[in-house]
Design a protein that fits this description.
The chain is of the alpha/beta class. It is 37% helix and 19% strand. The protein is built from 5 helices and 5 strands. A 5-stranded parallel beta sheet has the order 2-1-3-4-5, sandwiched between helices. Helix 2 runs parallel beside helix 3. The longest helix has 19 residues. The radius of gyration is 17 Å and the shape is globular.
């Protein structure tokens, strides 16, 4: 009788999300989506989230470490998602920017896509749509910039 090799659980890959919104409840809701153990879409992915309420704080976070995805409220008074997108586009491996809004419509979606944003998500956010959109954007970002996947055990994250 031969001993079989121990089976190992697959190591989750980590997606680092920067959530930019002046509303604290937006960050709380996203954190609940990312940390839900009952999540059925992409259970092999782990999410870390950094929460910022202003454009300047978001820019600082983007300068400090590798962010995979930016999830940004449409109106960031003062300023808007466009200001953050302009900053992100100057980075060496600019992460996709996904815009959120309570009034998401076709006009907004066309504006975001035409200016270089990745997508628009309507609030209140649907957890499966959030995970699917972020995962799709992350996959494109990795492929486009040849960014190596990070596993959740070896990568430190900034939880909100």
């Amino acid at each position: 009788m031969t001993a079989s090799a121990p089976t190992r659980e697959p190591v989750a890959q980590r997606i680092a999300v920067l959530s930019v919104s002046p509303a604290e409840e937006d960050h709380f809701y996203l954190q609940n989506i990312f940390s839900n153990p009952q999540r059925t879409l992409y259970p092999d992915l782990a999410f870390t989230m950094t929460a910022k309420s202003t454009i300047s704080a978001a820019k600082s976070a983007l300068k400090q470490g590798r962010i995979s995805i930016v999830l940004c409220e449409y109106d960031l008074s003062p300023g808007s998602w466009k200001d953050l997108l302009e900053f992100v586009e100057g980075l060496s491996a600019p992460p996709p920017v996904i815009v959120t809004s309570r009034v998401a419509d076709e006009r907004m979606w066309a504006e975001v896509l035409n200016l270089g944003g990745y997508d628009v998500l309507a609030r209140p956010l649907n957890s499966e749509e959030v995970i699917r959109t972020i995962t799709s954007a992350w996959s494109l970002w990795q492929h486009r910039f040849r960014v190596p996947a990070q596993n959740a055990q070896s990568a430190g994250g900034n939880a909100a």
